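Dear Dr. H.,

I hope your travels went smoothly. While you were away I took the liberty of generating a structure for the chain from your last submission, since the lab meeting agenda had it listed for discussion. I wanted you to have the full record in hand beforehand rather than looking at slides cold. The sequence, exactly as received, is reproduced here:
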Amino acid sequence: MSTHRTISLSEYVKKRNGVALGAPSSMRHMLKRSLGANSFYIFWHYWNPIWGYYLSCKVMKPLSQQLPLWLAIILTFAISGALHDLAITLVKWKLTFLCTPWFTLMSLIVLATKTFSISYHMYHWLIRASINIALITICFVLTCLYT
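The corresponding predicted structure, in token form, is as follows:
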């Protein structure tokens, strides 16, 4: 029998944002924490905690119990991208395949920053935010060029 209790969405958001779910300042807290994260790996701990909660519970955790962690991370990002592509496809009524490769590419950067312990904690928040935004943008541009 497992002694681990499942964390609720409210608890998860409070842990990630530092403020309660639905708090007026939650978007500001999420942006400040995610953009100012010390690494690209940590960026994703804070980005969109509601979506992150469901990805963690419904995708990452089950995959990581069956597969190596690195593969579970790649597949979690790919599934998130596929769900984003599906949403865009349904809204536009046009098949979209952009987010799946984009998110998968970002997962490789996540793994690299984690594997090589790449951190930019010593830099000012604005520099950390610029690095995180640059990594997202570079992955997006590369995806657009090659898909």
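Two observations you may find useful: Residues 9-146 form one domain. The chain has a mean pLDDT of 95.

With kind regards,
E. W.
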